[in-house]
Amino acid sequence: MAIDITQFHETFFEESFEGLDIMESGLLNLDIGAADNDTVNAIFRAAHSIKGGSATFGFSEVAEFTHGMETLLDEMRDGSRDVTQESVDTLLQSVDCLREMLGASRDKTPIDLERAEALKKELEKILSSDNNSIKSPSENDESKNTAPASESSGRDGWEIKFKPYHDMLRTGNDPVRMFRELAELGDLSVEIDISQLPALEDLDPEESYLSWKLTLKADVEKEKVKEIFEWVEDECDIEFNELSAATDKADNPANVMATATTAPPQTTDNSKKTAAPKKAATSTDSASIRVSIDKVDALINMVGELVITQSMIGQLDCDLDEFDNNRMEKLRDGLTLLERNTRELQESVMRIRMLPISFAFNRFPRMVHDLCQKLNKKIELKTTGEQTELDKTVMEKIGDPLVHLVRNSIDHGIEMPEERVAADKPETGIIELNAFHKGGNIIIEIKDDGAGFNKERIKAKAVERGLISSDEQLSDEKIYDLLFQPGFSTAEQLSDISGRGVGMDVVRRNIRELGGNIDVSSEMGKGTTFTIRLPLTLAILDGQLVCVGSEIYITPLVSIVESLQIKKEFVNNIAGQTELYKVRDDYIPIVRMHNIFGIDAEQKNLEGGLLVIVEGDGKKAGLLVDDLLGQQQVVIKSLETNYKRVDGVSGATILGDGTVALILDVDGLIELSRNPPTSGNTSTNQVREVA
C-alpha cells in the first residue's frame, strides 16, 4: 500500500512560504560586498529546504527553479562570489517568482513558466560571469601556488551509515530521493540492511524498517553531504566516516542491492504540457494558525480544571428534600469556581487566535526597498512593538489599509534626497511603524519625517470641489478629515503608487468595519503620523448592559466615558430640536434611545434620567437610558451574516436567560442622532422576531 503524501502538502506549503519570508528578509539585510555569513547561510538553508521538499512531493518545476538560486547562494556563502546588488535584486525577484509558483502548485493552477525561465537565464548569466565566478580545480592550480585545503586533503569520499526511525516515512521523506542527490556529488553505491524487516503480515507500509550503508566516492566537503540529510537529521541515526585510499575497498556485488547512479527525476516537457483549467481565485487568508505549546498547555490545564469543577457539582446531585444549607453553600462555591474556570478557558481560547503584528509588518521592508529603487529615494524603515498581539481576523483585514498608508508616506511624505538636504534634513528619510496596547485596543502608528500636509492646499482643494466654503473656519481635525473624502487628493502628479484619491476613504471605511478609527496629525516640514485604533478581537467584547423600556442593549465598555444622572439646569435646546447636556465645559448632544429604536421607555422626561456618555470617531454623545444593569463579557454574533445590517447596531449576543440583546454601534448612533428616523427603527424589533 503506497503512502498518500498529499496529506503533507499543506504543511509543506506553510513551511515553504515561511522559508520564503526568511529568504526575503535575509536578502534585504545583506550588506553589498561583505555579507554576513550567518545571514547567507540562513538564506541558503531556506532555499535548500524548499528545493528538497519540492522534489520530495513531485513539484519538479519548483525544485528545478530553486536549484539555480541555491547554486548562486552556495557560491556566496563559500566566499567564491561577492554579494552584488545585481545578485540580490535577481534573487529577490526569484523569491517573488518562487512564491507565485508555490501558490499555483497549492491552488492547482498553471505556473507562469515564461517568467520562471526568464529568471533562470538571469541566474545563469550571473553564475557564468567572469567576475568572482568559481574556478575549476585546474584553474585554481594554474592561478595559485597553493591549492585550497579541500583540494589537497587526499579525501576519497565518505561512508554514511543511515538508519531512519520507524516514523520517518510518515513525514513525507523518501530515502531514494536523498540517494539521488548524493549520486549527483560523485560515484555512489548502496548496501541495504533488511534484518529488521518483519513478516509480511506484521508489516506496516508507513513505517521504516530498513537501514543503509552508503559509499560516496567524491572529494567533497562533509557539510555538502550533511546538507542532503538536513530534513531528516532529527528522524534518524546517521554517521559520517571519511574514506581514504587505505580503507577504500571494492564493493561486494552480492551485498549491493541498489546503485544510486540514477539520473535526477526527469522534469516535465513544458512545451507539450497542456495548461490546467483555471480555477476560481482562492482567498489568500491562511486557513490555519500556529500555536505555541505554552498556549496549548494552558488550554489543556483549564479543561482539566473544568472537569474537576463538574465532578464537584455532580456530587451535590441529590433529592431536594436532602438539599440542606451545607450543600447549598458547596453549590455556590462550585458555581463560583465554574464561572472563574469558564472565563479563564475563554481567555485561553482567545489567546490561541492572537498573533504578533510582525505578521503584518513583515511585508513592508521589501515594499520600501522596491519603491525606493523605483522613486530614487532613500528611506529607512523602523519597526517597534512587533510582538504586540492581535486577533488573526483583525490582522488579515488591516493589512491592505496599512499598505496604502505606507505607500502614501513613501510616495508623498518623504521628499527626494536633494530636497531633504536643502531643507537641512538627512537625505535618508525615516518611516516608523509602531504597535502597542492601550486599554482594550491596539494602537498602530505610521510616522514619517517627510514634508507633512499643507493645510492651505487641502482647504483650497476642498473649496475647489465644493466641500467647504472659502470663508469657512476649520480646526486641524476637520481639515485632515477632508483627506478621507472619496476621490480627494492634493497630489500634483498622478502616479501608479498613490495619489489618485481612491484609497484614503477606503482605508477609513475598512478600519471602521473592524470597529476602529484613524486619526491624522501633521506638521508642515516635520512629518505626519497616522494613528489607527483597533479592538484586540472581533469575537468578544466587554459591555455595559443598559435597559430601555423592556429591551436590553449592550454598550461597548471601551466607548463609555462616564455615566451620570441628568440635572435639568444643565440641559439646553438648540432651535427647539437638538438637546445638549453640559458636562463641565463641554456640550454633548443627547440621544433618546427610545426614539431611535421606536420603543416605549419608562423614562421619557430628561430630569432624573440616566445619561451614558459615549465617544466614537472623536465625537461624544449622551445615551438616555432607563437603567444600568451591570457589566458583562459577551460573544458577538454578526447580524449581517444571520439577518441584515441595522443602523446603530453592530451585532447581537445571547444573554444567560436565552434572550437576544443588541450590541450598539456608537458611531452609528451618533450619526443617527443627527438624522433621526421619522417613524422609528423597526429593524431592531424584526431582529428579535427572527431570533
Describe this structure in words.
The chain has 691 residues and is an alpha+beta fold. The chain folds into 5 domains: 5-134, Four Helix Bundle (Hemerythrin (Met), subunit A); 152-262, 2-Layer Sandwich (Alpha-Beta Plaits); 293-352; 356-535, Histidine kinase-like ATPase, C-terminal domain (Heat Shock Protein 90, 2-Layer Sandwich), CATH 3.30.565; 540-690, OB fold (Dihydrolipoamide Acetyltransferase, E2P) (Beta Barrel). The chain has a 6-stranded mixed sheet. The chain has a 5-stranded antiparallel sheet with strand order 4-1-3-2-5, covered by helices on one side. A 5-stranded mixed sheet has the order 7-9-10-12-11. Helix 4 (85-107) packs antiparallel against helix 5. It is flat and about 100 Å long.
Query: What name goes with the CATH superfamily of the largest domain?
Result: Histidine kinase-like ATPase, C-terminal domain
- The number of distinct β-strands equals 23
Based on CA atoms alone, the radius of gyration comes out at 34 Å
What do we call the CATH topology of the largest domain? Heat Shock Protein 90
Determine the fraction of residues in helical runs and give it as a percent range.
25-40%
Largest sheet: 6 strands, mixed
Coarse morphology: flat
Query: What class, by secondary structure content?
Result: alpha+beta
| Individual helix count | 21
| Tally of distinct domains | 5
Q: Proportion of β residues?
A: 15-25%
What is the topological layout?
Blueprint: H1 9-29, H2 37-56, H3 60-77, H4 85-107, H5 113-128, H6 137-143, E1 157-164, H7 175-183, E2 187-193, E3 211-217, H8 222-228, E4 236-243, E5 256-258, H9 293-314, H10 325-352, E6 354-356, H11 358-361, H12 364-375, E7 379-384, E8 389-391, H13 392-413, H14 417-422, E9 429-438, E10 441-448, H15 455-464, H16 476-481, H17 504-513, E11 517-523, E12 527-535, E13 540-548, E14 551-556, E15 560-565, E16 571-574, E17 578-583, E18 586-592, H18 593-597, E19 610-616, E20 619-625, E21 627-635, H19 639-642, E22 649-654, E23 660-664, H20 666-674, H21 683-690
